[in-house]
Amino acid sequence: MGNYVVKQINDLSKVDLSLLIKESKEDGFRFVERLVNDYHDGTNTFSQHGEALFGVFNEHGEIVVIGGVNIDPFSDRPNTGRLRRFYVSREYRRNGLGSLLLKSIIDEASKHFSILVLHTDTIDADRFYTSYGFTKGDAYPNSTHYMELH
User: Fold this and answer.
1) End-to-end distance of the chain based on CA atoms, in angstroms?
2) Which InterPro entries match (predicted)?
3) What is the mean pLDDT of the chain?
4) Among 2, 34, 137, 150, which is least packed by CB within 10 angstroms?
């Protein structure tokens, strides 16, 4: 599988996301591009208490998976985190790297939140998240899946 490392991203402006943006747009998703735009305009910098942005980097230092956790902006419960901007480069899918990052995000989120929610509209993502213990349901606003962390 090669040498891969999960790193917390503290300054997104120092990470080249051009490949992930290009691929995600080709896949019909705009959220990686939105991640960059929101970071640069200050809308979402993953800097509030409990928030974090992570990437999986290959042996060449290139980012191949990205994702993070924010305080859920749609919830009135302060202990709810939201999985955000999770994307795996096509070449690196189905080899455990998405799982590696998801586990890291869940571990980090469990330090600060009691619930982790997300929204997805794809069957593959639904299968992926439910295989890691997320429950499919609309118990939380603007969410399709949730997980109790404590």
Assistant:
1) 32
2) Acyl_CoA_acyltransferase (IPR016181), GNAT_dom (IPR000182), NAT_camello-type (IPR050769)
3) 94
4) 150
